[in-house]
Amino acid sequence: MRNLIEFLSRNNHWFVFLILEALSFVLLFQYNSYQGSVWFSSANAVTGKIYEWSSAVEQYFTLTETNRKLTDRNLQLERELSAVSAALTHQKKDTSYVEKLQMKAVATYRMIPAKVVSNSVDKIDNFITIDKGSADGIKKDMGVVSGMGVVGIVYLVSEHYSVVIPVLNSHSNISCTIRGRGYFGYLHWNGGAVDEAYVDGIPRHARFRTGDWIVTSGYSQVFPPGVIVGRIYRVYNSENGLSYRLRLKLSTDFGRLRDVSVVDDAVLIERQKLIQAAQDSIKPRE
Questions:
Q1: Cβ neighbours of residue 202 under 8 Å, at least 6 residues apart?
Q2: Is pLDDT of 12 > 80?
Q3: Pairwise CA distance, residues 148 & 94, whole Å
Q4: Predicted confidence band at 85 (pLDDT cuts at 50, 70, 90)?
Q5: How far apart, in whole angstroms, are the C-alpha atoms of residue 76 and residue 68?
Q6: SS (H, E, C) the chain
Q7: pLDDT score for 150
Q8: Which residues pair with 186 in a beta bridge?
Q9: Which of 77, 223, 239, 268 is an S-S bond match for 143, by CB 3.0 to 4.6 Å?
Q10: Are 141 and 165 in contact (CB under 8 A)?
C-alpha cells in the first residue's frame, strides 16, 4: 500500500494531466457542434466495427451448433420430400390405371361429352344437371360416366339440359360385379361420406379380397361392362346373413365433378335385343 501511495505521489502530475485532457475533450465535444458531430460519427463507426467483430467471433464459435441444426433440418426435409414423392407416384399410378380401365370399357361406344352445370353432394337424394339435352341426342335412362368412373343415370331431359341421378342418391341402383371374379350385386348409397358406397347381394361362396375393383356388370341397357365404380376396402355380412355387403371407396370424386360423358345406348340396346332374341328362340322341352 505504501508503494502505491509513493507511486501516485511521484507521478501525480501525469494523472492530473490525463484528467484535465479528458475534461477538455468533454467540454470540446459537448459545447462545439462540429467537433461533437465528428466525435459522434467516429464513435458510431468504432462501435459498429466492434459489434461486427464480436458477431463474427460469436458466429465462429457457434458454427458447430448451426451446422448440426442445418443437417437435422435437411434430413427432415429429405424425409418429407420422399414421402410426398411416394404419395404422388402412387396417386399418379393409381389414377393412370383407372383411366386406362375406363377408356377400355367405353372404347367401342359413342360418348356424348357434357359439362356439369349444377351438382349437390350434401343431401340424401342428390342431383346433377348437365348442359346437354334431347337436341344433343340425350335420352332418359342413359348412363353417365367421368374419366374416373361411374357418375349416374339420366333421369329427366329437356332440349338443352338433363338431370342425372348420381350414385350419391338413395334411389340409385346400379348392377356391379367384382372385376375378374364374376360375382355381381347392386350399388347403393345411403348418405354419409361422399366417397363411399355399398354393394349388396354378393353371394357367401364368392372369393375376393379387399382392394379388388368393382365395375359395372353390363347386365342392363345403361352401362357397358367394365366401367370403374370403386375398390373394396371393407366387408360385412348382410342383415339376413345370406350374402356379403361390400363397402367401397368410389373412384369418382363427386365434389370436383366438372366433365362427364353420356353413353349412347344404341349399341347397348342392340346387344340386349340380340340376347333377348336368343332367349326367346330357345323353347322349353316338352
A1: 178, 183, 184, 185, 208, 243, 244, 245, 246
A2: no
A3: 11
A4: very low
A5: 12
A6: CHHHHHHHHHCHHHHHHHHHHHHHHHHHHHHCHHHHHHHHHHHHHHHHHHHHHHHHHHHHHCHHHHHHHHHHHHHHHHHHHHHHHHHHHHHHHHHHHHHHHHHHHHCCCCEEEEEEEEECCCCCECCEEECCCHHHCCCCCCEEEECCEEEEEEEEECCCCEEEEECCECCCCEEEEECCCCCEEEEECCCCCCCEEEEEEEECCCCCCCCCEEEECCCCCCCCCCCEEEEEEEEEECCCCCEEEEEEEECCCHHHCCEEEEECCHHHHHHHHHHHHHHHHCCCCC
A7: 92
A8: 175, 200
A9: 223
A10: no
Is the pTM of the predicted complex or chain greater than 0.90?
no
**pLDDT tens digits along 142-201:** 999 988 889 999 999 999 999 999 999 999 999 999 988 888 899 999 888 999 999 999
User: Which pLDDT band holds residue 286 (cuts at 50, 70, 90)?
Assistant: very low
103, amino acid identity: M
What is the total residue count of the chain? 286
